[in-house]
Amino acid sequence: MKNLNGYYGQWGGAFIPEVLHETFRQLKDFYSKARKDPAFWQEYTDLMATYSCRPTPLTAADNLSRHFGGARIFIKREDLNHTGAHKANNVMGQGLLVKRMGKGRVIAETGAGQHGVATATMAAKFGFKCTIYMGEEDVMRQRPNVFWMEKLGAEVIPVTTGSKTLKDAINAAFRDWVTNMDNTHYCLGTACGPHPFPEMVTWFQSIIGLEAREQIERQFGRPPARVYACVGGGSNAMGVFQGFLDLPEVELVGVEAGGEGLASGRHAARLASRDGSPGVAQGYKTMFLQDDDGQMRTTHSVAAGLDYVGVSPILTDLWEQGRVRFASATDREVMAALELTMTNEGIIPALESSHAFVQAFKEAGDMSPDEAVIINMSGRGDKDIFTIANAFKDPSWQQFIINKGKEYEAER
Amino acid sequence: MKLSAEIAQASSGKDILLMTHIVLGYPSFETNKKVIAQMVANGVDLIEMQIPFSEPMADGPVIIKANQDSLLDGTRLADCLNFARQMTETHAIPFLFMTYYNILFKYGIEAFCQRAVEAGIQGFIVPDLPPEEGADYLKYARQYDLAPIQIFAPTSTPERMRFLAEAAGGFIYCVARRGVTGTQTTFNEEFNNYIAQCRASTDMPLAVGFGISNRDDVQALIGKADIAVIGSETIRLVDRQGAAAVGPFIAGLR
Ligand SMILES: Cc1ncc(COP(=O)(O)O)c(C=O)c1O
After folding, report:
1. Would an 8 Å CB–CB cutoff place B163 in contact with chain A?
2. Fold match, A7-49+86-197 / A53-84+206-390
């Protein structure tokens, strides 16, 4: 991961409006000081150990391993992190940085709502004001997360421009930032955006990979043959991959949202499909899903957190170098993998995370029992009960909602 | 550079120049044509034509909506280039393209510069392309005599302004305040200090934009700026009262 001025190969950079130049200079400054200061990382890991649930376990999924009859499957349990996903790692790290910068307000974009909830949680703990931008479509898909953000004290602003999803929430957050940068930090939720965000988010998320490396060596005796992670913006994937980047024999596999299938055009596979092309948007250069004129296309996934037009420039570089292999999982495959994991292991992965399970399940049976694979379970699915119950078209759940609706109606 | 010469020429005998802004294809190219004719007939000195982009990160609500509606209506880059050529052939004032970097990048920077020159365009404003990221852009813009207009912001330090000015051509676009396009600016002491700093950092003409919407604003800029930029306000006006309202509005500004 060589970084020259925020470039990873030909990807990355900082394409920012002039008004933010100073803000980024200051951020880069605080970030590089923190990075060189061992006390900062110590403070971070202490916080994560006492406030969150770190280190999160590495669970041997023996029933699934038996089911596929091949590689031994291990699951890295980011679902057990506070707020239920890996997002908290990044948010808590940035929160400590905000304290050092002396700012009193944080803003964030959110797709699935997971990063929004994590940011609202951090803001509550550190005493920051908090505004979350969320595409109107995602507000509708992820109402329970909106409820929690508001209860945690954040203001949630539905974004009605563009496709009303994650990318539009990012634009809205930038517009807030160019107005309020003096007292506000933009807590970007994934390893995308202008330098130093990809590198900084990746650094905070490396805690996943550092733990996983140690755990697999202790529990299995050696490194895994393959590591699987879902890829939205790329933060959980970069997080776990960093534990194994220095081991060329460990194959790293990123799984993107195949939506209704790559051929349908309704997907969010920037690297695993042939539909992505180089572009510059949202402050950085990467492979985007865009048309011939450079206009961003609408993407689709059952998992809001993967429904995004761009991908981490660091991952694009690793893909180009052949270090990370990319695959995609369709909405339908995701539901099947989720069901299998629940019934065999009593573990409920988020829809985003289930994408990684799909690819691991496709490959595990062809591998040997001497080999291990790690699936990064980026988050838990039980908090997404509305989305998951809906995706399963569960009749008794639907009836419950109808009855609840009637009850509320009668109370009004 | 062609644009610098034209600005110098236009400036003689005027207290301040006017630059206006339109979003191509919004509400339609037909309306754009009428609006531009009204602007030119009423003394506008330069026009920036925004090629719509799906992610207009630095723009406020009025211009975002215009970008979005134009694209929904099916505006393509080729339409914008054709329209630009028609306008530069019809009207004698300088026309610029304002857009986001991906539009140039995706097309190929040199090819885009060639098309822009063929369309009679004299310069570019690209708000998400700082000089550090724009080596190729700056090279080709110079090669094709297109002015790579740079942006100053109230947050820019004096050193930064000098660095930006070195990369710039034509004039400097001074963003009047923090924030995005489309809301009012107040011309206070802080603003005056900022403009004085801009002036001290470059010999190039200074354009001031963001929140300039009426005669008072333009008057307030006389003696400080060389060019007053009217952005969102004409879009609002056309939305509410149609293209015909633009002429009297412009005529009343100076
Ligand atoms: C549980 C979960 N996994 C994965 C993602 C995708 O993000 P990233 O690719 O940055 O890990 C999200 C995003 O919201 C998420 O909530």
Report:
1. no
2. yes
pLDDT digit string, tens, across residues B61-99:
899 999 999 999 999 999 999 999 999 999 999 999 999
pTM exceeds cut of 0.90: yes
CB A268 within 8 A of CB A301: yes
CB atoms A181 and B154 under 8 Å:
no
Which residues lie across from A12 on neighbouring strands? Answer: A7, A285
Task: Look at residue A2 in the predicted model and tell me its pLDDT.
Answer: 53
Ligand 1 atom nearest to CA at A112? 14
Q: Does domain A7-49+86-197 match CATH 3.40.50.1100?
A: yes
Side-chain half-sphere CA neighbours of A394 within 13 A:
14
Residue A326 and residue A272 in contact, taking contact as beta carbons nearer than 8 Å: yes
Q: Residue A3: its pLDDT value, please?
A: 61
DSSP string over chain B? -HHHHHHHHHHTT-S-EEEEEEETTSS-HHHHHHHHHHHHHTT--EEEEEPP-S--TT--HHHHHHHHHHHHTT--HHHHHHHHHHHHHH--S-EEEE--HHHHHHH-HHHHHHHHHHTT--EEE-TT--GGG-HHHHHHHHHTT-EEEEEE-TT--HHHHHHHHHH--S-EEEE-SSS-TTS-----HHHHHHHHHHHHH-SS-EEEESS--SHHHHHHHBTTBSEEEE-HHHHHHHHHH-GGGHHHHHHTT-
- A80: tokens are 């057990």
For residues A357-379, give the mean pLDDT.
Answer: 98
pLDDT in tens, B170-181: 999 999 988 877
CATH of domain A53-84+206-390: 3.40.50.1100
Residue A22 corresponds to which amino acid?
E
CATH H superfamily, domain B2-251: Aldolase class I (3.20.20.70)
Burial of A409 (0-12, 13-18, 19+ CB in 10 A): exposed
The verdict on a CB contact (< 8 Å) between B57 and A17 is yes
Among A121, A218, A206, A122, smallest CA distance to A376 is for A206
What pLDDT score does B180 carry? 75
Phi (first) and psi of residue B43, to 5 degrees: 95, 10
Domain ranges within chain B, ordered by starting residue: 2-251
Distances (CA, A) of A82 to A51, A203, A342, B103: 7, 19, 21, 41
Q: Which residue in this structure is represented by tokens 């393509």?
A: B76
- The CA A82 to ligand 1 mean position distance, Å, reads 15
Which residues in chain B show pLDDT less than 70?
182
User: Is the peptide bond between A278 and the residue preceding it cis, with omega within 30 degrees of 0?
Assistant: no
Question: The tokens of A129 are what?
Answer: 């004001």
**Cα Dmax for chain B:** 45
B48 catalytic residue (yes or no): yes
- Asked whether B16 and B195 are in contact (CB, 8 A), the reply is no
Q: Could you tell me the distance, in angstroms and rounded to a whole number, from the CA of residue A249 to the centre of ligand 1?
A: 26
**Nearest alpha-carbon partner for A141 in A363, A303, A17, A25:** A303
Q: Which residues line ligand 1 (CB under 6 A)?
A: A 85, 87, 111-112, 114-115, 190, 230-237, 305-306, 350, 352-353, 378-379
Residue B94 token pair: 């300088």
ipTM comes to: 0.96
Predicted local distance difference test score (pLDDT) of residue A74: 99
The pLDDT of residue A383 is 79
What's the distance, CA A337 to chain centroid? 19
Q: Which residues of A touch B106 (CB under 8 A)?
A: 277, 279, 290, 292-294
Instruction: For chain A, give every domain's residue range.
Output: 7-49+86-197, 53-84+206-390
For A217-231, what is the mean pLDDT?
98
Residue A171 and residue B55: Cβ atoms within 8 Å? Answer: yes
